[in-house]
Amino acid sequence: MTTLAAPFAASVLLLAGSVACASPEESGDGEQTQTGVKAAEATSAEDFGGIDGLVAAAKNEGELNVIALPPDWANYGAIIKAFSAKYGIKVNSAQPDASSQEEIDAANQQKGGNTAPDVFDLGQSVALANTEMFAPYKVVNFDDIPAAFKDRDGTWVNDYGGYMSIGYDSAKVPPVTRIDDLLKPEYQGKVALNGDPTQAGAAFSGVVMVALSQGGSVDDIAPGVEFFEKLADAGNFVSVNPTSATIESGQTPVVIDWNFVNAAESKKLPSWQVFVPPDHTVAGYYYQAINKDAPHPAAARLWQEFLYSDEGQNLFALGGVRPVRADNMAVDGTLDKAAAESLPVIDGPVTVPSPQQTEAATKYLSEHWAAAIG
């Protein structure tokens, strides 16, 4: 576990080579670039002769397949539109509400086809369990990303982070001021967790947050699982994957999820409030990676370049998440002022599980979660 006051607790919150289009039935490695490297094996824009060559190759492919990117999640709706408009590349967005594990499942099921995901956006546990599916790639701004937030070969790179929170409809339930409030009768049939913690990063971090509140730790999440068992026994926990529709209908008036997802709901529902437990603050980054079997390998690499550019990072920040380059951009003066002001400020220590702790906790959850919630 890393317990830190920064970067999460800081006041500033994360030439023309060509590639042939894949056929409708099958994906491919792409033709060789002018440097002699196939697009699917390119490890940097230099393999395309530079950014201009990469742009040309991506435009030649003409499409990009993304998965599990809801428009309101981390501002991905605006990011997708900006990327498509800038490069004239059609973005096919599949299964926006899918979990991280479902992203991997889709890639395996659709391997070799033109509809397979080109890129992934994954929670830590699922990402680290599937690194053999990723293609190493270093964006132009790779050296600007802190070493702790990337694989040294670019197999994966953290893109943005957030804090675990509790969102609630103040018109339907009493204010949530501490995690133990959720056990009260007033919350019967009202508490939802965003996903299955054995498959989804948000749900996993939610269990970690609860474990800390119950005297546990990242190394001992049993108290968190036990708390959810109590919630289920009391009839307070609902096994419904929360969405804007379930929130607005009143089906899930209390949701444990990332602060930026809950904050997005506040824009639609004025009575929706967001609570980040100050004494049990848990933060986490998502993992960005390229599918090594991407049907559009050049477009996948251009997508990475866009996400880690100043433009892409500022678009993330406007979605209430902390872009991974936020600190350096703040120093350079390239972090959008309005975006910086929109980021939450957390005073005090923040818990971030290490990869090893995540692996051990995921194993525990796989063995105990289903039985705990019935």
TrEMBL record:
The keyword Coiled coil does not apply. This is ABC transporter substrate-binding protein. One of its GO terms (molecular function) is thiamine pyrophosphate binding. It comes from Mycobacterium lehmannii. The keyword Membrane does not apply. The lineage of its organism: Bacteria, Bacillati, Actinomycetota, Actinomycetes, Mycobacteriales. One of its GO terms (cellular component) is outer membrane-bounded periplasmic space. Keywords: Signal. One of its GO terms (biological process) is thiamine transport. Residues 1-22 form the signal peptide. Residues 97-116 are annotated as: Disordered.
